[in-house]
Amino acid sequence: MPEKILKKAPNDGLGGQTDEEKLGVTYKQISEMIELGDTESRAKAKIIEKFRNSEHKRKPIPCYTFERKNYLIDN
Q1: Which residue of 7, 23, 56, 60 is most buried, as measured by CB atoms within 10 A?
Q2: Which residue has the higher pLDDT, 41 or 9?
Q3: Distances (CA, A) of 26 to 20, 21, 43, 51, 55
Q4: How far is it, in rounded angstroms, from Cα 71 to Cα 75?
Q5: HSE-up of residue 71 (Cα within 13 Å, Cβ side)
Q6: Closest of 63, 68, 39 to residue 51, by C-alpha
Q7: Helical ranges in 2-73 per DSSP H
């Protein structure tokens, strides 16, 4: 595998920016927050903000449920 590919910074290939540039924080800072609960203050604030703003993505999808008789099972 060419070294150029192994060292390439992750990106989505759409905007010309790396993932870290888009996020405004480094993967190292994110890792520090997850593993240690702390990192540089500006990065910490940004990570917490992004975490709070994406809370809806971690919740189960609401769905309608109802009870009805199953005539194949309930005789």
Answers
A1: 23
A2: 41
A3: 5, 8, 8, 15, 21
A4: 6
A5: 0
A6: 39
A7: 3-6, 19-23, 27-36, 41-53
| Residues 36 and 30: beta-carbon distance below 8 Å | no
74 contacts: CB under 8 Å, gap ≥ 6: none
pLDDT tens string 20-33: 999 999 999 999 99
37, with CB counted inside 10 A (0-12, 13-18, 19+), is: exposed
Distance CA 57, CA 63 (A): 15
pTM (two decimals): 0.69
Tokens of 35: 């593993």
Task: Enumerate the domain spans of the chain.
Answer: 3-58
